[in-house]
Design goal:
CATH architecture of chain A: 3-Layer(aba) Sandwich
CATH topology of chain A: Glutaredoxin
Number of domains of chain A: 1
Number of strands of chain A: 4
Structural class of chain A: alpha+beta
Radius of gyration of chain A: 17 Å
Oligomer: homodimer
CATH superfamily of chain A: Glutaredoxin
Strand order of the largest sheet of chain A: 2-1-3-4
Distance between the termini of chain A: 33 Å
Chain lengths: 213, 213
């Protein structure tokens, strides 16, 4: 049996949200499972690559504000741009890993709930209180979670996850690594689907698919 | 009749090369024509957005070195990474506009020839001599072209083209504007095809297309 597909995400990315709504279905069509892996764009984009945040980049930010809702529409998923500033996913990412220590499936449900809170309901997912409340609604003990993500092991787990992701070349999200092949972006799920089915970059009408025919 | 589709390119981009091999066919399927419009990434990426060149960006450059040949394979077009450093498309972009002043179709043939010279034959397209030679092989008077691109009008035409592109929000290449809709990237031709056919971002199996089904 093949390894699960690695799906790297940060809650603050609208494209990671959009891909998160699709990735398990794409994998399932090929009898594959998905491992959700949080990273922090603040570290990969800003510290490692030395770039500024996308939404502070002239011209590109205008395009992205148009493109996020458009891509959500393409996939038929709910989406709205919140007007929130300075969202930080540190607590939510730590919570994901903390929950996943004992229940990986519950952690994935939690990830979907956090994505929805931010990108559908427009809720600021920065405060640990909000993160604990979202988890609590899924049956997680909120007080235990609060203590867990404030603990050294809770912090170190995320640091290690981000370091490991960087070690594998992850620089943005969504970023998928499937059977050794890296794919960046919510607009490349058609390539992932082809790769999982063929493990080659040609044949089977791929060029036609790429050009929409 | 609708306006032609605007296709923004810079010869130094492998993705612009790949898209340049497809864009006219996608447009033709919808009875549309294409206007090729050169821009200079050195100005849009570096000066306006304040970013460094992609290939000097840690992590991302490794991904792009893998992804360029992969995307060429997806579309079934010849491609090889040249080992050339510091390629400058200034002379080639000026020449494109200079040729296009009197013969737009010839300018497009010249653009394809320059793309092939760089991304298939691995030729440095920086020197005006090389640019003039490529144009000469297509029947352009090389001496006249050399004089044209060294003249003030020859320089100003490209400056104006780049300014106009920035004014329309173009920040990278390939960048397409079709019936008011902007699309960035060689991996989004399936979206362009859909847009040209439907002028909407849903319906007609688009979500399935996006996910490769």
């Amino acid at each position: 049996m093949r390894e699960p597909i690695d799906f790297y995400f940060d809650f603050i990315s609208p494209y990671a949200y959009i891909a998160s709504t699709q990735i398990e279905a794409v994998a399932a069509r090929h009898g594959r499972s998905v491992t959700f892996r949080p990273v922090l764009l603040g570290i990969t984009v800003m510290k490692v690559m030395g770039l500024k945040p996308l939404m502070e980049t002239p011209l590109k930010s205008d395009y992205l504000r148009h493109d996020g809702p458009r891509m959500a529409k393409v996939y038929g998923v709910p989406f709205r741009y919140h007007g929130l500033k300075g969202i930080n996913s540190l607590a939510a990412c730590r919570a994901f890993l903390w929950i996943g220590r004992t229940d990986a499936a519950l952690a994935v449900r939690f990830a979907h709930a956090v994505f929805r809170a931010l990108w559908v309901d427009g809720r600021d997912i920065t405060p640990a209180d909000t993160v604990a409340e979202i988890a609590g609604a899924l049956g997680v003990d909120a007080a235990e979670l609060r203590a867990g993500i404030a603990s050294e092991p809770g912090k170190l787990a995320l640091n290690a996850a981000v370091e490991a992701a960087i070690g594998r070349g992850v620089f943005g999200v969504p970023y998928v690594i499937a059977d050794g092949e890296p794919l960046w972006g919510a607009d490349r799920l058609w390539m992932l689907d082809h790769w999982l089915g063929h493990h080659a970059w040609d044949g089977a009408g791929l060029a036609a698919l790429a050009a929409g025919r």
